[in-house]
């Protein structure tokens, strides 16, 4: 009986010891943070950023560290056995030394700048996610994450490509090792990824006009680079090229601090496109407005989209009004768009007596005078000729711009039928800093859209708009 009681006591002590040891092991592994097997991509985010957040949190890092020290003190020899069993050390010092930046990366010679193109949307080529995207500097493809189960990590093992840049932070890493690469030879890639200008450089843009050379040896002039026609998007390209000539608008969007308060993707993408067009260190002599077009499609609800031709006048009017609506503040209804392009017209409307009965009578015609702001002035071309010349060929009609501008002299009458029949007279009472003129060349008849073949002649030095400008009425 005595021997059986001793054996039962020994078995109880062993069971209690095993339970306490199992509890200590569970506490130790919960403190070290073993990954959840139910979450397949739990390490997609940067391990270094997670480590820094845990270390710099308010008391969080110290609590974890103290908890690890307590567990180590309690376990004693058990911790050494666990390290020998799993073959790894979970200490913070070893993990921190693993991600220390290095300057002697042996894979820098594999970087291929010829294949790098940062004009497209920042989406992973595998998961189509825009979170934590890296660009492979060897093949130019985009991959998500930097952890051991991420697509970038897998690509580094399968293809043997080891140098990656974070498209948001512009940091360069070596995978699968995971350390950051510090090398000044990669600064040109950062400048192409996110072109930046200082205020002094912006002031000197028009003074120092020098040609630049791309990687393929072609020369280009910053600000005059070509835009890729993705698919029937030439109406966007001509609008962008014309707006790039407006100096105040260009200077405003070259410095992101001017519109950092605006969260509109259209404004941000337009600013990025402006900086890329005027950047003097591009790898290529052309720019692709792909990201800007995606923002246009989303903001216009696919009114203007890739693969569908549209009127550039309608697109410019929509773009200027949308940029103004996003840039203006709640305190004042003003923006860089209105400062550059807004003018004011005096409109005299003569309406027949049958249309209105409560206006001041002037014979059989009622007259209304109002002021109207404008961003663009539309010019009416004369109708095309119906007859051919003696050689049985169509005559190429030409008209001076001065004759078309008579519409705004305050005396020429323009007949309108919508929304009601009226006779209109226009006079410019305030000229904008930059005047946009467009001609109604396309008109839709009962069968198809007809193009007016008239050419407009004007002088490149002087347009003569001041003849139709009445400052006395302003």
Automatic annotation (TrEMBL):
InterPro entries: Papain-like_cys_pep_sf (IPR038765), Peptidase_C19_UCH (IPR001394), Ub_carboxyl-term_hydrolase (IPR050185), USP (IPR028889), USP39 (IPR033809), Znf_RING/FYVE/PHD (IPR013083), Znf_UBP (IPR001607). Belongs to the peptidase C19 family. Pfam families: UCH, zf-UBP. The keyword Transmembrane does not apply. Residues 225-474 form the USP domain. This is UBIQUITIN CARBOXYL-TERMINAL HYDROLASE. It comes from Salix koriyanagi. Residues 1-99 are annotated as: Disordered. Residues 43-52, 75-87 have a biased composition (Acidic residues). PROSITE patterns: USP_3, ZF_UBP. SUPFAM superfamilies: Cysteine proteinases, RING/U-box.
């Amino acid at each position: 009986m005595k021997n059986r009681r001793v054996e039962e006591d020994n078995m109880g002590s062993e069971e209690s010891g095993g339970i306490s040891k199992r509890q200590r092991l569970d506490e130790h592994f919960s403190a070290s943070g073993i990954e959840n097997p139910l979450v397949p991509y739990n390490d997609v985010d940067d391990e270094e950023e997670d480590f820094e957040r845990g270390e710099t949190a308010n008391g969080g890092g110290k609590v974890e560290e103290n908890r690890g020290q307590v567990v180590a003190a309690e376990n004693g020899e058990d911790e050494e056995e666990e390290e020998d069993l799993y073959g790894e050390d979970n200490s913070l010092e070893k993990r921190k030394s693993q991600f220390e930046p290095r300057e002697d990366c042996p894979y820098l010679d594999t970087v291929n700048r010829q294949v790098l193109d940062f004009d497209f949307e920042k989406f992973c080529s595998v998961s189509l996610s825009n979170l934590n995207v890296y660009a492979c500097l060897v093949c130019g493809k985009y991959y998500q994450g930097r952890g051991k189960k991420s697509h970038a990590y897998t690509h580094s093992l399968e293809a043997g490509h080891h140098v990656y840049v974070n498209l948001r932070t512009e940091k360069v890493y070596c995978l699968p090792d995971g350390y950051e690469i510090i090398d000044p030879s990669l600064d040109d890639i950062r400048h192409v990824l996110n072109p930046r200008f200082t205020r002094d450089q912006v002031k000197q843009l028009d003074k120092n006009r020098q040609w630049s050379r791309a990687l393929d040896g072609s020369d280009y002039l910053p600000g005059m680079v070509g835009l890729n026609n993705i698919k029937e998007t030439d109406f966007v390209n001509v609008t962008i090229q014309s707006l790039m000539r407006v100096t105040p608008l260009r200077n405003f969007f070259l410095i992101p601090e001017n519109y950092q308060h605006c969260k509109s993707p259209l404004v941000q993408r337009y600013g990025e496109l402006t900086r890329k067009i005027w950047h003097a260190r591009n790898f290529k002599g052309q720019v692709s407005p792909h990201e800007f077009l995606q923002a246009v499609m989303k903001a216009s609800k696919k009114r203007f989209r890739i693969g569908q031709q549209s009127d550039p006048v309608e697109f410019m009017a929509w773009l200027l009004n949308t940029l103004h609506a996003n840039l203006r503040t709640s305190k004042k209804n003003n923006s860089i768009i209105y400062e550059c392009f807004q003018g004011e017209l005096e409109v005299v409307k003569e309406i027949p007596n049958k249309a209105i009965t409560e206006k001041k009578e002037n014979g059989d015609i009622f007259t209304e005078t109002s002021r109207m702001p404008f961003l663009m002035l539309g010019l009416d071309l004369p109708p095309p000729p119906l007859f051919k010349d003696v050689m049985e060929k169509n005559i190429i009609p030409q008209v001076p711009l001065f004759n078309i501008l008579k519409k705004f002299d305050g005396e020429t009458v323009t007949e309108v039928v919508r929304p009601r029949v009226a006779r209109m007279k226009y006079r410019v009472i305030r000229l904008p800093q930059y005047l946009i003129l467009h001609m109604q060349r396309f008109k839709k008849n009962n069968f198809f859209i007809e193009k007016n073949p008239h050419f407009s002649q004007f002088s490149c030095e002087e347009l003569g708009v001041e003849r139709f400008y009445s400052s006395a009425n302003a």
